[in-house]
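#structure-requests
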Amino acid sequence: MKSFRIPAFWQAVLVIVIAYLVFDNAFPPLLPKTLMIQYMIITIIGVLLYFSCDDARWTEFQAPVLATLRNDNLMVVRWALLIIIPAIIGYTVYGMVKPSNEAPVELRQVHPAPPASVKAYGKSFDLALLENPIREEIIKTLSSDKEAGWEKYKEAVSAGVMSTIRTVSIATAIC
């Protein structure tokens, strides 16, 4: 009695389909599409590596593909694959990029609004009305004398940089 054996190409297809079904249905929370794509790419690469590591298996794996490409009697199959495979890929891409009216699976997290006022050094500051006095002074100087305004701007920037460097050096010395 002859035992039943699945050809190598169909073994690969079967493993890939089973892997897809396991990844799609085995995890209770929905698996994100990007993770599903990564798992399937890894599975396909693993299957191809398995079949290509042995010459006899690789030849058996390639046989149906090469027969479809080279045999003139299979021209209808070749044309069907030439039409069906790009159509499936196009439909999949269309399904991924078309807008959807469904709510996302994850709820959107809304961060709280900043407070209207802050109390510091015993004084209350209204954040909407705060103005930078140095900026106001530079703008006022720029409107009357551009050269002096740019000089004040450069001094303010270098003072800010120097205070930042001083703060970092003090923090480094403390640590």
